[in-house]
Amino acid sequence: PKDRIYRFGEKDNFWRMGNSGPCGPCSEIFYDMGPDVGGDPQQNVMGGEGDRYIEIWNLVFMQFNEDEQGNKTPLPNPSIDTGMGLERIAAVMQGEISNYHTDAFRQILDKLGKLCRGQYIYDTRKLSDSELQKIEADNVAYRVLADHARATAFLIADGVLPSNEGRGYVLRRIMRRAIRYGRNLSKEASLLPVAVEEVIALMGGHYNELKMQKSLILSTVKDEEKRFLKTLDQGTEILHAEIEKLQKSHQKIISGSFAFKLYDTYGFPVDLTHLIAREHNLLVNESDFAQHMQLAKEIAKASWKGKSLSTDAAFLIKESQSLFNKLGATVFTGYNRLHDQGKILWLAKDNQIVDHLKEGEEGLLVCTPTCFYAESGGQVGDTGTMETASGFVQVIDCTKNHDVFFHHIKVTSGEIKTEQSVALQVDFKARQDSANNHSATHLLHAALKKVLGSHVNQAGSLVEPERLRFDFTHNQPLSAEQIVDIENLVNAEIGQSEDVQAAVMTQQQALAEGAMALFGEKYGDEVRVISMGEFSKELCGGTHVTNTAYIRAFKIVSESGVSAGVRRIEAITGSKALQFLLKNVRENEMAREHIGYRGGWENYLYQEQKSVSEYIDQQREELKHLQKELQKAKGQQINIDDFIAQAVEFIHEGRPAKLVTADVPMDDRKVLSEITDKIRDKIQHGVVIVVGEGDSSHPIVVSVSKNLVGPYKAGEILQKVAQDLGGKGGGRPDFAQGAAKDRHHLSKAFSNIRESFS
User: C-alpha angle 276/282/283, rounded to 5°?
Assistant: First the structure.
């Protein structure tokens, strides 16, 4: 009917995607929730901000292309773009005025309410403005938690883990926003993990990936919440102190240096600083913050001591752009050859363009073509030599900027000039070792996904002749069994002697064929795909072996954490891996001989014997037991009467009491406590202080007779002694324990405590 059709102007009924691009008029479909909907009657009208009329559908008639000046030209192929809100349809069908009141959210909101000993208020129609204002902050927090818990669960199930860049940073911001709102609801309860678990229970039946990845999802959320709450409490306290100081002096701007200190020193997210600042009607000096951030990056870059010669970055950027515009991209021939003939096009020294370099001088050289690989994709640049008719050059490194290859060189004899022909020779051994490690990195990436799960993604890498380093997304340390499984998978693929295929194709075709692309990497229209049988297929521009057999062997030498949600594996390949393994075997054989395990290789592989590590563990336990027995025996030999004879007498409530100080050279706290008890029981009325002796710290034990507790507290006495010994401790009024770092001042400590009692 005509009375249900409303005509609005371009502001409401014309859709654009931005300042320019496809656009056209639109028709919005609203659902009338009825006159009983609460709120401001003046807003509960079509076009108002009330809850009575809910937009559920939008039809955009794409007719024009609009340029930045606002000029519209008809599209050659007009279309109708349909946008429909699924959850809004669900709300309408369930008679609810909000998506959050539907069964897609109620279970989560109710669970959070019980945990917070509160509740989400669904019906606010009968509330006064003051009552509504009071509960709205909590209602918003509930909604943020429920919504962000869903996003968190699905992102982690899709393989995204919290990090400081790319999609991982998006997830981290979502999670941390939810955690902060959860903190507003409850200081004690852990809310985000509970909300996420409810999401899995609610939606896991339809989205199997949620159930399959439940363990990973929950452990990731719990780890991130624990880590962030520590940061949040510390950072919030510091930020609020700064805000209070600014408000007292009537200032409105938080300095960029302060925001950067919060971020750099305490890990406090700058977007959270902005949010809290806005809540207090303050702003953050963004340009100042950006300057501090840029300076920190430059300092970090300058402090890295690589093998590349020092070159001003601005000079390189300017010259690379100029060279690219003039000469185009450097032609790289190094995939197929390690020696070539080129022509020197450009030379530089100390940020100055020159036409020649003499013996002993260092500088930069650009030639084309080149067979030297330029550092990129985690793989270091090639090294090698160059020779012209008049000079010989050592190539220290090769880097690139704007697709122009810069050879970092040192002239070792004669001189070289621009326009000269030059013979190029890449260091074969270094290139081969780098190729081994780069191909092994691809196999490692695939093996990690198979052993740990599809959530594993590359987070960084370093490929050099000596080793490989691979950073990947995973939120817990690898077990010894997992490391063995990964090594076995990689070495099995090496043993398969698979040909390594390199193919150039469109990015779309590569992804359709299942090739892995690294998130955040920029790829051109055409990409290079490296395939190793059915095991690994990745987009990669690096150099590789021609067959996996050339890698020979793969050995993980370390596994560690880099940052939250990111682990690091370092490994070696080829002859280095074989040398490492042979050395370990020799040492193992020697150790087995020492413990009496002898025999041929059949016994070594098949006979069921205790491993060397099991034997060592057994010996350690026996040694620990013997040490305890020895300490006990020493304790029994100690004559406590000698200590009592040197006691200091003092008067308490008219009765004589004794202070006994004892230097006992042992580290067993149990034995020291027994000695302390024996002395206390024998003197009956007094204070006993015993200081032991350990390797890095020295135990302190203080005991006070029951009838002296009150004016004399064991913990306070211990603190006085520990203060002179660089230690600390605590305990009950009648008994306290602690540790000292330095025994050199023990005589002084005992003397000071005796004086305080005399």
Answer: 95
Q: Are 624 and 630 in contact (CB under 8 A)?
A: no
Could you tell me how far CA 168 lies from the centroid of its own chain? 9
Separation CA 216–CA 228 (nearest Å): 18
Cα–Cα dist 83/60, whole Å = 8
For CA atoms 41, 46, 50, 56, give the dihedral sign: positive
Q: Are residues 737 and 674 in the same domain?
A: yes
Residue 306 has pLDDT above 50, yes or no: no
State the residue range of the domain holding 345.
313-426
C-alpha 662/C-alpha 681 separation (Å) is 15
Round to whole Å and give the CA distance between 171 and 155.
Answer: 7
Q: Which of 177, 201, 235 is the last residue of a domain?
A: 235
**Rounded CA separation 702/690 (Å):** 6
- Token digits of residue 526: 């055409």
**pTM (whole model) above 0.70:** no
Strand duo 686-691 + 655-663: pairing: parallel
Q: Which of 411, 426, 441 is the last residue of a domain?
A: 426
Q: Give the closest residue to 417 by CA, choosing from 468, 365, 350, 351.
A: 365
Torsion angle of alpha carbons 452, 457, 461, 463, nearest 10°? 70
Query: Is the domain of 79 the same as that of 194?
Result: no
Contact criterion met (CB below 8 Å) for 394 and 365: no
- CATH code where residue 443 lies: 3.30.980.10
Q: Do 296 and 321 belong together in one domain?
A: no
Q: C-alpha 630: how far from its chain's center?
A: 47
Sign, CA torsion 487/490/494/495: positive
Which residues in 186-205 are b (16+ Cβ under 10 Å) and which e?
A: eeeebbbbbbbbbbbebebe
| Helix, strand or coil, per DSSP, at residue 734 | coil
For residue 389, what are the contacts with CB-CB under 8 A and spacing of at least 6? Answer: 420, 421
DSSP 360: T
Cα–Cα distance between 692 and 222 in angstroms, integer? 41
Residue labelled with tokens 């308490």? 652
- What CA–CA distances, in Å, run from 111 to 1, 99, 122, 182, 442? 44, 17, 14, 13, 44
Q: Which two tokens stand for residue 56?
A: 């559920």
Please give the DSSP secondary-structure letter assigned to residue 627: H
527 neighbors 504 (Cβ within 8 angstroms): yes
Residue 682, both tokens: 């024998």
pLDDT in tens, 138-187: 888 899 999 999 999 999 888 788 877 778 888 988 998 899 888 888 88
- How do residues 116-147 score in pLDDT, each as one tens digit? 888 888 877 667 777 777 788 888 889 999 99
Residues sharing a CB contact under 8 Å with residue 177, sequence separation 6 or more, in sequence order: 144, 148
Quote the DSSP letter at residue 284: E
Q: What's the rounded Cα separation, in Å, for the pair 52 and 47?
A: 11
Q: Which residues contact 734 (CB under 8 A, 6 or more apart)?
A: 703, 704, 705, 706, 709, 714
- Is the domain of 750 the same as that of 660? yes
Task: Tell me if 173 is assigned to some domain.
Answer: yes
355 and 392 housed in the same domain: yes
Task: Outline where DSSP puts E strands in 615-732.
Answer: 648-652, 655-663, 686-691, 698-704, 728-731
Residue 610 in any domain: the answer is: no
Kindly state the helix (H) or strand (E) to which residue 462 belongs, with its residue range: strand 458-463
